[in-house]
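Example 9 (inverse folding). The structure is encoded as follows.
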């Protein structure tokens, strides 16, 4: 059997060059990644539905297109590159259950706009990945497809809600995946699994075709974005999926810059080791090490008082509440009333198809609702904080911040620290772009990551700074799941 390592370890940029030079066939590339998925997926349970036959047909069509091209440089930017997508993002003929048992037979009848754009750019969808039930949780499991495991340690979570994407990219199953993030759902899996994850600026990417439907400000806080092997892979994907589609009224055009044009000597870095939760020393050291590495490359290090971010959970909760949209109970019930107490009792008897974290989120939603005046106060505080941070950062500044309080916990671990997602969630409602990447390993060999945050529209700046850190620390390495 041939060694697929050169293909399942390569960046999108490298694969694209080889495809255009005709030294690599799209069929060969897709087959190598399908083989890798088939090898690792029984261990990590990341891909829950495949379209291998269709992907191979599309790879043959891409091969013919490349062979007949007079100018390979004019070919679509992602032609022949395989990818996966999170189950919440509609892909024609693929599951669209949201991990909810009552929706287990639902299939998408068309592509979401992001999927359509990626396919128009030549990317080849090979499968759909697992999600938590209902989406708002830091672990990926549900009663339909089961649990996704971290490829570095099968006893640990891959994160959520794009946990299937994070796990399969980490294990070399695809060069990139399309996830979505409303509280850390791209960045937490990226951090736990040791891949690059980018949450775009709010309003940059249309949510048309996402389930459940996001409207108004909720569609600004929820953003689809890529998880990939290398920082250089982020912007080509982002340029494909960004921009208004005429359907999602929240999306607006941004003038995306070039990460290659960023001079680190002009960049100001604000390291923030914690904004409230008890962040472990290994994560604080990662932020400090990242700041030192950037300073060594010419960046200016400045201070930001972390107390500015101390009301992160209250701000996130209030701004999400004021954004409207269905309640979490409505989502889990899929339009039918959900009796939480009854479902928890059934769960204890082993008769419920709901997961405990999902039911706990519904219960918390009912118990922790803020009074209207408090909501308005916290929404105003969030908007003021966004304006303040953007003024401090300007066009050259970035925050360095932990993406979570610790490396990947064991399964069920996040249930004991349910508010730790505020390390990422605050920046959703502030609509700020954020790039997460691995820079170290802890004593257990687990990835340790940092996130780089900038002003709205400065996605290229966060990617540029993350790229510099990748050069300094080495970036992504393929995970080989124990037992493989």
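The amino acid assigned to each position is listed next.
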């Amino acid at each position: 059997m041939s060694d697929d390592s050169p293909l399942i370890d390569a960046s999108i940029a490298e694969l694209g060059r080889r495809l255009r030079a005709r030294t690599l066939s799209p069929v060969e590339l897709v087959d190598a990644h399908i083989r890798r998925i088939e090898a690792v997926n029984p261990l990590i349970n990341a891909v829950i539905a495949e379209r291998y036959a269709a992907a191979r047909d599309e790879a043959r069509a891409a091969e013919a297109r490349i062979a007949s091209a007079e100018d390979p440089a004019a070919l679509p930017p992602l032609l022949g590159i395989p990818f996966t997508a999170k189950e919440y993002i509609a892909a024609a003929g693929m599951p669209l259950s949201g991990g909810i048992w009552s929706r287990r037979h639902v299939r998408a009848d068309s592509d979401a706009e992001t999927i359509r754009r990626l396919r128009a750019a030549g990317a080849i969808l090979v499968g759909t990945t697992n999600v938590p039930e209902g989406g708002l949780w830091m672990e990926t499991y549900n009663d339909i497809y089961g649990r996704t495991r971290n490829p570095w340690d099968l006893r640990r979570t891959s994160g959520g809600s794009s946990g299937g994407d994070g796990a399969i990219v980490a294990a070399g199953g695809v060069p990139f995946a399309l996830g979505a993030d409303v509280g850390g759902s791209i960045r937490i899996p990226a951090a736990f699994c040791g891949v690059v994850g980018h949450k775009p600026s709010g309003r940059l990417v249309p949510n048309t075709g996402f389930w459940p439907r996001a409207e108004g400000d909720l569609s600004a806080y929820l953003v689809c974005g890529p998880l990939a092997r290398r920082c250089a892979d982020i912007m080509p994907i982002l340029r494909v999926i960004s921009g208004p589609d005429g359907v999602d009224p929240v999306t607006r055009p941004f003038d995306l810059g070039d990460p290659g044009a960023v001079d680190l000597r002009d960049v100001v870095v604000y390291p923030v080791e914690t904004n409230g939760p008890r962040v472990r020393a290994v994560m604080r050291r990662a932020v400090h090490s990242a700041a030192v590495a950037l300073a060594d490359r010419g960046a200016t290090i400045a201070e930001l008082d972390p107390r500015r971010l101390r009301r992160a959970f209250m701000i996130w909760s209030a701004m999400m509440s004021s954004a409207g949209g269905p309640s979490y109970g409505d989502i889990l019930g899929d339009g039918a009333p959900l009796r939480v107490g009854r479902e928890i009792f059934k769960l204890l008897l082993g008769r419920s198809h709901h997961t405990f974290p999902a039911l706990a989120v519904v219960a918390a939603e009912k118990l922790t609702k803020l009074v209207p005046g408090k909501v308005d106060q916290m929404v105003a505080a969030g908007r003021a904080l966004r304006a303040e941070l953007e003024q401090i950062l300007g066009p050259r500044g970035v925050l360095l911040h932990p993406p979570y309080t610790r490396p990947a916990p064991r399964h069920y671990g996040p249930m004991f620290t349910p508010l730790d997602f505020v390390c990422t969630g605050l920046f959703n409602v502030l609509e700020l772009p954020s790039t997460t990447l691995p820079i170290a390993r802890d004593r257990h060999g687990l990835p340790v990551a940092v996130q780089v945050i900038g002003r709205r529209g400065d996605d290229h700046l966060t990617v540029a700074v993350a790229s510099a850190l990748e050069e300094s620390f080495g970036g992504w390495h393929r995970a080989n799941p124990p037992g493989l």
